[in-house]
Amino acid sequence: MSVEHHGQFLHSSLAGGLRGRAWRAGRPDMAECSSWQPPRPCEAYRAEWNLCRSARHFLHHYYVHGERPACEQWRRDLASCRDWEERRSAEAQRSLCESERARVQAARKHILVWALRQSPPADWHLPLPQEKDE
Amino acid sequence: MAGAPDVGGPGPAAGEQLQQQHVSCQVFPKRLAQGNPQQGFLSSFFTSNQKCQLRLLRTLETNPYVKLLLDAMKHSGCAVNKDRHFSCEDCNGNVSGGFDASTSQIVLCQNNIRNQAHMNRVVTHELIHAFDHCRAHVDWFTNLRHLACSEVRAANLSGDCSLVNEIFRFHFGLKQHHQTCVRDRATLSILAVRNISKEVAKNAVDEVFESCFNDYEPFGRIPHNKTYARYAHRDFQNRDRYYSNI
């Protein structure tokens, strides 16, 4: 039985996203890259914040986790997104990146029970056994 | 109005131990029938096979859970073909469906799927198994932890354990009841396809629960209803922008 950290795809994606950028004091200087945009459209942050604050979500979250949901980070991210759209604020960009990386890390912190494939199963597209016989 | 437990385990395969084969072939009798041609459509409507096919088509075209799973599988190199990867069959017992890893096919129990909502949930459940089969080396037949993990994920992410469904089963509970339901239904699903004791099945679920309950792929969250599933699909479609900007 083999296990694998969930971060395999994440690390390659992160590396791909940060490649070629100038580094400063151990942190990527993303403000110098003019093609950066918020990871999600600002409407998505608003939608997530609204969903998080809804009574229905409170019920779902309590039913699953036994505690109330925390929605403050979505509000902060929405504010950062708007700030960046209006003023191209470097602080807003940094804050958004930090927040989303934290979300990704939180989602990937558990060790997988199985090993991930490098390619799909070879027989996925093969015809069914009786069709092959025909 | 108790819902029939969905079977998420694989069907029998060559080389599988006799005990396991015995259990699986009792549930999916046609999976082992040699030279048994697939039932064609009957000339009249409202046969169970016809209903199954029509409901399946509607699920594949409209359900946001399923559309996300289909996109994710296509992205992983396992594009799903309705005629190749789905089969509507009569099943024994109370099961609603299964994933046969030996043929890469999802079995839908046409005699046990009650309505469109049930079909939506069964297809979602089985596609989660298919997705796991596609993206990971899941040893369905000899590694009980792998089977348990996929069953935990399927129970967690398919809507099997929604508050409404649990109430319909007369299982009343609120605080963290979802997790209890996931453990119980994963255990039931394992027992439906493995000739092992309830204790052994439960231990396997307990061992993998922490990891597998928190593995939300490809949804990125627990989709409590179609709104969450649509948001998850939106995020999946946005993933290139997302990962290139964090």
From TrEMBL, chain A:
Which Gene Ontology CC terms are recorded?
A: synapse; synaptic cleft
InterPro entries annotated for this entry?
Pants/Emi1-like
- Check the UniProt entry and state the signal peptide residues, or none: none
Q: What subcellular locations does the record give? A: Synaptic cleft
Q: Which GO terms fall under biological process for this protein?
A: negative regulation of long-term synaptic potentiation
Q: Please name the Pfam families in this protein's record.
A: PANTS-like
Give the family per the record: Belongs to the UPF0545 family.
This chain's protein is named Synaptic plasticity regulator PANTS
Q: Organism source for this protein?
A: Cebus imitator
TrEMBL record, chain B:
Hydrolase: is it a keyword of this entry?
Answer: yes
Enzyme class label: hydrolase
Task: Give UniProt keywords alphabetically.
Answer: Hydrolase, Metal-binding, Metalloprotease, Protease
Which InterPro entries does UniProt cross-reference here? Peptidase_M76_ATP23
Assigned GO CC terms: cell junction; cytosol; mitochondrion; plasma membrane
**Enzyme Commission (EC) number:** 3.4.24.-
Q: Which GO terms describe its biological process?
A: mitochondrial protein processing; mitochondrial proton-transporting ATP synthase complex assembly
Q: Name one Pfam family in it.
A: Peptidase_M76
Query: What molecular function does GO assign, one term?
Result: metal ion binding
Under what name is this protein listed?
A: Mitochondrial inner membrane protease ATP23
According to its UniProt entry, this protein's organism is: Cebus imitator (Panamanian white-faced capuchin)
Q: What is the lineage of its organism?
A: Eukaryota, Metazoa, Chordata, Craniata, Vertebrata
